[in-house]
Amino acid sequence: MNYSYSFEQMRAADARTIKSGTPAFELMERAGRALADAVLAAAKRLGVGDVLVVCGGGNNGGDGFVAARLLRETGMDVFVVCLAETFSPDCLCAKEAFGGEVSGRISRMRFALALDCVFGTGLNRAPEGDGAALIDFINSCGAYVISADLPSGLSENGVAFSPCVKADETVCMGLMKNALLLSDGADCAGKIIVAEIGISSEVQGAEIWEEADVKKLFPKRLSNSHKGVFGGACLLAGSKEYSGAAFLSAGACLKSGSGYTRLCVSSDLFPYMIGRMPACILREFRSIDGEILASDCIAMGMGSGVSERLYARIAEILSAYTGTLVLDADALNSLACYGADILKEKSCSVILTPHVKEFSRLIGATTEEVKRRAVELAKKFAEEYGVTVFLKNNRAVIADGKRIAINITGSPALAKGGSGDVLSGFLAGTCARGVPPFEACCASAYVCGKAGEFAAEDMGEYAPDATDVISRISRVLARF
Predict the structure, then answer these.
(1) Which stretches within 294-412 are classed as H helix?
(2) Where are the alpha helices (DSSP H) in 327-373?
(3) How far apart are the first and last CA of the chain?
(4) How many CA atoms lie within 13 A of 342 on its CB side?
(5) What distance in Å separates the CA atoms of residue 64 and residue 324, rounded to the nearest whole number?
(6) How far is it, in rounded angstroms, from Cα 202 to Cα 15?
(7) What pLDDT is recorded for position 107?
(8) How many Cα neighbours within 13 Å face the side chain of 437?
(9) d(CA 344, CA 26)
């Protein structure tokens, strides 16, 4: 398992490393050497002998001046641009140690290779003036771009300011940063290299689950087992208007390994469903009864439609149920309409699976604010309501109030209706097998994301639909 960190956590780790005896300038030297190594490797691949180094006046710029000095010592032709008028003390030392010419104006030359060292983790607003001009220069100079620590213009939680560098490669110093994984960061960072420069953190960052971590939750089954061993999931899904959600959730749940998949649908939808999913236990849903409450996991809201009736059923389950409840789609929208405080009075474990827009409705914020503060807001909601939040975007954030995880599997092929229904069904089945909520969310995010990647590999990013993702879940699980 790997970990990633917020800007605040990263700055605290820097300060701790310096306090423990490593001089700040030594860290800058190490960072500059990591950048120089990356530039030399790229120059060899590209067959070029010159590089543009663009520096700011902060410590990120200091890393660039160190790299420029080391690259010049190897014989590379180094062209340095810096428009800063003030410098941090360490950056000024690095600039003076460079000793070469530093241009104070933007060139019209084009370059094959550029090193972006303009801004680091201290940026908290959109670049303006010379900073913005330098970013535009980097993006337009025609070069293969390597960014130092993170692309200049990228903010916390990966939301790109305008302008922002679009890097081909990012050399991340010491610890992985959340910004490189989330939102626009996934597109702006390019290939990510984490350079070991002697920085460690006393706090645990966001968990990044890998195949080996997920595999542990899908152990080899004993021959002497039966369907009752693997739990039962109950899906309260679909409506006459949105019948597809029930099909998709049930289809994914059947792939999860749970022993039973019960699909409960409304009376008007029930006749249409008969015989269409023979592997499910199909029920006409009239009320919350003992059979439903006996399930190891209940998932509800997928294609149900927003209503006070649905809200009342959520409240009833929260008070009477003792398993794991997954609330998705219209269950979340009903909470947003009629009040989320019922989540505080519950006898069961609860998982919420909102996408960014649904979460914004739930907490009364804009979608942009949710993106800018994804980790913070997911964690805060999980703590306040005692739930696990599975916040879906191009990279999911999972929070239970104590732990944070960021899922990095997935593909733009998943950006279609039905993908959330697939995830909720698979998650319900995984919880039904007895996997705890936080771990079940991490595993389900990984598996469904990887299934989306396989669908994109086979069909491209445009063609796959949710059924194509379901059909590739088995391919992911077979690797375990």
Answers:
(1) 308-320, 330-338, 356-363, 367-372, 374-385
(2) 330-338, 356-363, 367-372
(3) 16
(4) 20
(5) 51
(6) 11
(7) 84
(8) 27
(9) 50
DSSP assignment of 1-46, as one string?
-EEEE-HHHHHHHHHHHHHTT--HHHHHHHHHHHHHHHHHHHHHHH
Residue 443 burial (10 A CB sphere; 0-12, 13-18, 19+): buried
- Give the count of alpha carbons within 13 A of 306, CB side only: 11
Query: In the chain, what percentage of residues exceed pLDDT 90?
Result: 96
**pLDDT tops 90 at residue 240:** no
- Contact status, residue 167 vs residue 135, Cβ threshold 8 Å: no
Residue 151, classed as helix, strand or coil, is coil
Q: Name 52's bridge partners.
A: 79, 114
Sheet holding 281-284, edge to edge: 176-177, 2-5, 206-208, 404-406, 397-399, 388-391, 349-352, 324-327, 297-300, 232-236, 260-265, 281-284
- If you ran DSSP here, which 8-state letter would residue 182 be given? S
Name the helix (H) or strand (E) containing 139.
helix 129-140
Question: Average pLDDT, stretch 428-433?
Answer: 98
Helix (H) or strand (E) holding 327: strand 324-327
Strand-strand pairing, 397-399 and 404-406? antiparallel
The CA-atom distances, in angstroms, between 151 and each of 162, 206, 214, 352 are 12, 20, 30, 32
CA 179 to chain centre: 9
Beta-carbon contacts of 31 under 8 Å, excluding residues fewer than 6 positions away, are 63, 66, 148, 149, 173, 195, 197
Q: Which of 101, 120, 10, 3 is nearest to 53 (CA)?
A: 101
CB contact at 8 A, 366 and 321: no
Find, among 339, 269, 274, the residue nearest to 303 by Cα. 269
Bridge partners, 50 (sequence order): 77
pLDDT for residue 108: 81
Alpha-carbon distances, residue 379 vs 103, 139, 375, 376, 393 (angstroms): 45, 35, 6, 5, 16
35: left (phi over 0), alpha (psi -120 to 50) or beta: alpha
Do 304 and 328 touch, CB atoms closer than 8 A?
no
pLDDT at residue 73, as a whole number: 97
pTM exceeding 0.85: yes
239 CB-near residues (< 8 Å, 6+ apart): 266, 268, 269, 303, 304, 305
Joined together, the tokens standing for residue 245 give 């959600």
Contacting residues for 10 by C-beta, under 8 A, at least 6 apart: 121, 174, 175, 177, 201
Both structure tokens of 108: 């019209």
